[in-house]
Amino acid sequence: MVYQLYPRSFQDSNGDGIGDLRGIISRLDYLKSIGVGSVWLNPIYASPNDDNGYDISDYQQIMPEFGTMQDFDELLRGMHQRGLKLIMDLVVNHSSDEHRWFKQARSSRQSPYRDYYYWWPAEKGTPPARYSTFDVNRNAWRYDSLTNAYYLHYFSVRQPDLNWNNPKLRQEVYRMMRFWLDKGIDGFRMDAFQFVAKDPTFPPMPGLNETNYTNAYNHGPRLHDYLQEMNREVLSHYNIMTVAEGAGRNPTEAMLFVDPARRELNMTYHFEAVGVGNTPERYQLTDLKRVFTRWDSAFARKGWQSIYLGSHDQPRMTSKFGDDRPEFRAASAQLLNTFLLTMRGTPYCYNGDELGMTNIGFDNIADYRDVAALNGYQLVKSQGGSLPAYIQAMQRFSRDNSRTPFQWDASAHAGFTTGTPWIKVNPNYATLNQAAQETQPNSVLNHFRRATSMRQQHPVLVHGQYQLLDAANPHIYAYTRTLGPERVLVVLNFSDTQRSWPLPAGLKPSGQPWLNNYPTLATSPTFMLQPWQAVVMKLQ
């Protein structure tokens, strides 16, 4: 299991309101106790922080707010002493505009660093349209008067895109990767890497908008050449894990990244599942089943995939896919964690989901911190759109929902900081927190521990064949996992009412459930499932 840790919001050690490396060090025993094997750390590199650390000004320095390189070395040692592996975010589709490469590049058209980035000379006219959801004008080109040219930025205006067509740039990236790998880190999660390959002639892409631009940018020319070169020059020389964000627009493309014969990466991390439910209407369970089943089928014989429902770029999983009303929050969070830990692939837990943390749903734009949310608000305002409707959408879908501080206990600011937190703490921390759940045997946290332990004890839940049952059922997600003679049944009631589910012919439970988020289960001849009940049982 990979535990995604958002450093800015995990634990503050010095009272400045910002989580830091020493804060993480103080919580390593907690991470060990919940059964995770690897920790993926969101960026901690030097950054002016326009996009919460994804705008990097020096790839080989630590952001002072997070601490020092000595703190990092101590963190890595502490993790390895506990048998935990550390995965770093590799952010090389773009840098910060404060990186020395970009400062040099924009100083002169003759700069040796000019071709580290993409430029469009103004004398050639307006550059071909490119869309940016992070830009206040949704334009991915920004005019720079110093050299009378436009530079490309798929993300924020302060995140100019790096030119991977330039072999010198690629060698700089490989040197930087070796720096961290030689320190002993255990792998990379590659941010936005699906976008690095661009045609430098910039052919027209008519009709780009918020719904189609990611597909248009995805999987550009020479992408796999770059990955294979990276593997030859860097990755193959270390025993590490590699996963690319958004690897492939579909399972066929995704397999290109992880087919062992191609020698590229270890694991895919696709967006189709978290794309379910991104509309005003509530998601359909049949859609979620269809996505997970399709992707499992594609990787049934080779390749490996990530299984996740939450991240720093998504709303809280319990609010989106579960039910965050007080009476159903715990059971639905337990169900979702049961699902993640009983699927084939590597499960990813976003920090706080092991507690069932929920969306905060800010109703005032002043409380938001995410550059995408703030720029989107300005765009709606400039176009005379409905600001209340925009805020209503942000309450459900903003990335800031998942970035509120970790809820450690019922003390001020949830025990996250003694100062003023960089973003507000969810008010439900008084009752929803780690300290309270430690003492409750049936809490979301202790259920998570039982689920991780169950997965570690039973290889059938890691490698076993997955078979969907009752595909058309709009409320029950049921499937079997089979490895050799061992067969396991998973039954999940994705609803807030009691549901009956007839056991298919030929399936006979054996003994007590391996995992059940309710004290009892009626099984014969029909399962009677309580709201958000999740059951894992061995079959005869």
TrEMBL record:
SMART domains: Aamy. Residues 4-407 form the Glycosyl hydrolase family 13 catalytic domain. InterPro entries: GH (IPR017853), GH13_cat_dom (IPR006047), Glyco_hydro_b (IPR013780), Malt_amylase-like_C (IPR032091), O16G_dom_2 (IPR045857). Signal peptide: none annotated. Belongs to the glycosyl hydrolase 13 family. This is Alpha-glucosidase. It comes from Hymenobacter glacieicola. The gene is malL.
